[in-house]
Amino acid sequence: MPTNWWRADPQCDINETLILETAQLIKSLGLADVGYNYVNIDDCYSEKKRTAVGDIVEEKTRFPSGMKWLTDQIHALDLDAGWFTCALYPGSFQNEEHDVKLFSEEWGFDLLKYDNCAVPFDEITRENIIGCYTHMSNAIAAQAKASGKSPFILSLCEWGREQPWLWARRLGQSWRTTTDITPDWKSIASIIDQNLFYSWVSDFYGHGDLDMLEVGNGELTFEEAKAHFTVWSFLKSPLLILAAASDETLEILKNTEIIGINQDPVVGTAVAPFRWGLNPDWTANASFPAQYWSGESQNGTIVMLLNVLDEPADMFFNLTESPWIRAGRQYFVRDLWSHTDNGTAVRNVSVPGVPAHGVVALLLRDAGDEPEGIQSWCAVAEWCIDKNGTFI
């Protein structure tokens, strides 16, 4: 899970000291201990032009010690280093093999975020976005084979324009699904709404990237930030955090029960809606995305309730609305934000007063057969039929 500099300093105000200090903070604040292990230099690290032999060169004022020195310092902290460019600095189109060798062998990077900005016109490339990304993916694979080392992570970013969830898995490890995020609830709700239609694609070795986390940035409330972090985690998005963090922000970013769902070693699939709530099911609404979600985990069924209203709301669901819940069973309820065990649920769960733009994250574990004598016999009566053929 990476730490990213771009949203915190979007005007190229970075240097090797700031990057190294960020890496040291990841260690000292305990972020590395909960899984944040990449430090990404998002842009502005190079000179504007290549050398005569075609090399990209570090910007001498901001990075006087060179990239190899910087990645060595990051690796010495047991962290990995990533990089990216899209601010009119040299890109890698038609230089893929050359750049991959430089980035990997000489500079020592471990991750590449590869944007689709400033690509030449079609009469030059004569191929689409998939073709351009295939060149880089092939170059990474060839370099790994030649060096005998594992290939570094390739994070694709073409902002969801050509449905990367259908093809990007065979080229890299993650793909951006939407345009850039901004630090406000409107943007977050819109990204949730778009991703709910293809959350099923994420699995081991291939993840939809919902863009960096804005936790600690902008004017998000504490409840909005919790909801933001929960959705990104449960949709199995890469968790890219900002360089700056308050105590309140750290409380969110270091929630190991939420992170544990994102990093589940047994279940790689994301949550999906089982009921939209305010809107009819399968409705796209950028302001009011789906509210009721569930999915599998190694420890039980996870349920996410999202209050998309501007005021507190009571939320309710029948257990068997989730496809991962067995009929006729009761379930222990664990709240992943309060870190409390909240009794046993039979047939349904009610949560009063979910804060505006807030979230409830539950882990449901099988607690055996439900008590006898519950009426009706079926949790969803209209779906049930007696042995004599009569609807119950």
TrEMBL record:
Enzyme Commission number(s) from the entry: 3.2.1.22
Pfam families for this protein: Melibiase_2 (PF16499), Melibiase_C (PF17801)
Keyword terms, alphabetized: Disulfide bond, Glycosidase, Hydrolase, Signal
One BP term from GO: carbohydrate metabolic process
Keyword hit for Disulfide bond: yes
GO MF term set: alpha-galactosidase activity
InterPro entries linked: Aldolase_TIM (IPR013785), GH (IPR017853), Glyco_hydro_27 (IPR002241), Glyco_hydro_b (IPR013780), Melibiase_C (IPR041233)
Primary enzyme class: hydrolase
Name of the featured protein: Alpha-galactosidase
Natural source organism: Mycena maculata
Upper classification of the organism: Eukaryota, Fungi, Dikarya, Basidiomycota, Agaricomycotina
